[in-house]
Amino acid sequence: MAVEAAIERETARQAAEEAKRLELAAAAAALAPTVRTAEQTVVMVADDSKVVRIKTGRLLAAHRFQVVMAEDGADAARQIEASLPDVLVTDVDMPGLTGLQLARQVRGDPRTAALPIIIVTSDSEQLQDEAAAAGVNVVLGKPYPEALLIEHVQQLAHVSAAS
C-alpha cells in the first residue's frame, strides 16, 4: 500500500509540474511580441505641418504600412483614444498638446502605455533626456535618413523582415 501511495503522489506531482509548465508556456506566448507584416501595421503620424505629414505618410505607405494622420497632439490623442495604432510618430513642437505632452499622456493611460513612440525634432541633442523621461522609445533628429525611420517602425512594431 505504501508503494501505491508513493506512486499516486509522484503521478500527482508530475501532473502538477506539467500543468505549471503549460501555464508558464502560455503566459510567455501571451507576452511574446506578435510578428506581423507591414500591411497589418498601423502607424500614426502626428505633425502640425501638412507637408511633413504627407511626406512621412507617403514614405510609410511606400513600405506598405497603414498610415493614419493627426494634425497635432490633441488630434492624435483623440484618435488614439478611439483606435490604438501600432506605432506613433510625432513631432515635438506642435500647438496645444506638444509631442512630449502627448507621450506623457499616452504613457499615463494603462490602455496605451505600451504604444511605441518615435519623436522627430530638430533639437535632438537637447531633447534626449526629456524624451526618455516622457517614455519616448526613439528620438530622431531632423533631417533623418528615411531608412532609419522605417527600420525603427519595423523594430518597434515587430514587423517581419519578409514583409
UniProtKB/TrEMBL annotation:
The keyword Phosphoprotein applies. The keyword Phosphoprotein applies. Residues 42-157 form the Response regulatory domain. CDD domains: REC. The modification 4-aspartylphosphate is found at D91. Keywords: Phosphoprotein. It comes from the Bacteria. Pfam families: Response_reg. GO terms for biological process: phosphorelay signal transduction system. This is Chemotaxis protein CheY. It comes from Candidatus Accumulibacter adjunctus. The lineage of its organism: Bacteria, Pseudomonadati, Pseudomonadota, Betaproteobacteria, Candidatus Accumulibacter. The gene is cheY_2.
